[in-house]
Amino acid sequence: MYRKWQEMYKSKLKTADEAVAMIRDKEVISSGFAVGHPVGIFQALTRRVKAGKLYNPTVLAACIIGESHPFLDPSIKDLIEFDSFFVGLERSSVNQGYFSYSPVKFGDLDTISGRGLRPVQVSVLHVSPMDRHGFFSTGVSVDFAWSFAKSNPNRRLFILEVNEHMPRTYGNNHVHISEVDVVTEHHVPLTHFPTPPPRKEWEMMAGYIAEMVPDGATIQLGYGGLPGAVGNALKGKRDLGVHSEVIPDVMVDLYEAGAITCSKKTYMPHKWVGSFATGTEKVYDFVKENPMVEMHTVGVVNNPYIIAQNDNLISINATLQIDLTGQCVSESIGPIQYSCTGGQVDFVQGAWMSKGGKSFICLESTVVDKNGQRKSKIVPQLYPGSFITTSRTEVQWVVTEYGAVLLKGQSIKSRVEALISIAHPDFRDELRFAARQLGYTR
């Protein structure tokens, strides 16, 4: 059969420019998240639009990475609409109105696609080379791209961009050569995301969290400095499991330290469950053809009911600002879009439903603004126009470098007192005064 699949592959193989020539004016093109972007196709799409041969396409994807990304070319503003489920380097274009942001919980994206709520005519996936059975893998970036390609009822054209550097992974993330219309090739190394160097504040927060993580817990970490610090603080734990939207480098460190075994997991025991891997060659190489690791869509990994099947699920997320009642703003600075909802709400809800689960929302107590002025990130009232990501009814634990406090089920008065206790000492008096003015305390 392999010869048959090879012949089919050759019959569908085209250059990126030939593939893009099959896209029609004003069509919507779905793709993936960050390293899941088919860069060769995006380069060809940009060339065709700039040449005046394609009018007003929309790319539905997320998280532009790399300063050389073709969609950051200033000459294509107003020529390609990039509609993002996440805000990375596209932040400036979103806030200028050239690109758009679609607020969603990642856990809802499979259903949004399956119900046809975001009609897509063209799907493009960045995949590993074909195996002997005719299958390709979306590898380290399954995210929402696979489900949009497979389940959207409006799809007309299905294109794969094959990259020999994309690792093949296990899980539900494969596409067969018989399903696709066009195959292109673009062989470039995956972008690396080294963990930022540690900061004292992150290490302090990580210490508070680690004290409350039992052996045998299943963890959800993101990418970045704080998740990296939490991972380092967990190296003394035993039999940890993994059920996480993101699999970062630090989880490989935990595995090598003997902290992760997945043996105590109550959902898919002995398996790491993730949706995309973000880091360096360390994690990309680790997940490659590793039977321990299963990569699924965010509609599976981020489904709160599935998350909750993991006992002692520990979720760690970050926020930008929190008010004295517990409302968390994790994606904007006032009305300016800065990040996204992502999987935060999914994992906050899933951890709450998990037997013994805990969710932690973390933030440094202060920030220095562009004028050099230090401000508290715990505030009496949110900045006007802020987008609330996690409501005060959902928040469980809040952590700063000054401690961890429980808000879930607590009164407004108790919340105020708790949050002030972990605010920066320089701002505690004014927060108490504001709380009295607002009628929260006496």
Write a concise keyword list for the protein shown above.
442 residues; alpha/beta; Glutaconate Coenzyme A-transferase; 8-stranded mixed β-sheet; 7-stranded parallel β-sheet; 15 helices; 24 strands; 27% helix; globular
Summarize the structure.
By secondary structure, the protein is an alpha/beta fold.
- How are the strands of the biggest sheet laid out side by side? 13-12-11-10-14-19-23-24
Structural class: alpha/beta
Integer average pLDDT: 96
- What's the story with the biggest beta sheet? 8 strands, mixed
Shape annotation = globular
Q: Given this structure, which CATH class of the largest domain is correct?
A: Alpha Beta
Query: Radius of gyration, Cα only, in angstroms?
Result: 22 Å
Query: Got a strand count?
Result: 24
- Identify low-pLDDT runs: none
CATH homologous superfamily of the largest domain? Acetyl-CoA hydrolase/transferase C-terminal domain
Say what the CATH topology of the largest domain is: Glutaconate Coenzyme A-transferase
The separation of the N and C termini measures 77 Å
Beta-strand content estimate? 15-25%
**Judging by the overall fold, what is the CATH architecture of the largest domain?**
3-Layer(aba) Sandwich
Give a verbal description of the structure.
There is one protein chain. The protein is α/β, with parallel strands linked by helices and 442 residues long. It has two domains: 2-185, 3-Layer(aba) Sandwich (Glutaconate Coenzyme A-transferase); 200-437, Acetyl-CoA hydrolase/transferase C-terminal domain (Glutaconate Coenzyme A-transferase), CATH 3.40.1080. The chain is 27% helix and 22% strand. The chain contains 15 helices and 24 strands. It has helices at residues 2-12, 16-20, 39-50, 91-96, 109-114, 145-151, 200-211, 225-233, 249-256, 281-287, 298-301, 304-307, 344-353, 412-421, 428-437; strands spanning 28-33, 58-62, 81-84, 100-101, 122-127, 135-137, 157-162, 174-176, 182-185, 218-220, 241-248, 272-278, 293-295, 313-318, 321-323, 328-329, 332-333, 336-337, 358-362, 366-368, 374-376, 378-379, 397-400, 403-406. The protein has an eight-stranded mixed sheet, sandwiched between helices. A seven-stranded parallel sheet has the order 4-3-2-1-5-7-9. The protein has a three-stranded mixed sheet with strand order 16-15-22, with no helix packed on it. α8 runs parallel beside α9 (249-256). The longest helix has 12 residues, at 39-50. The model has no long low-confidence stretch (mean pLDDT 96).
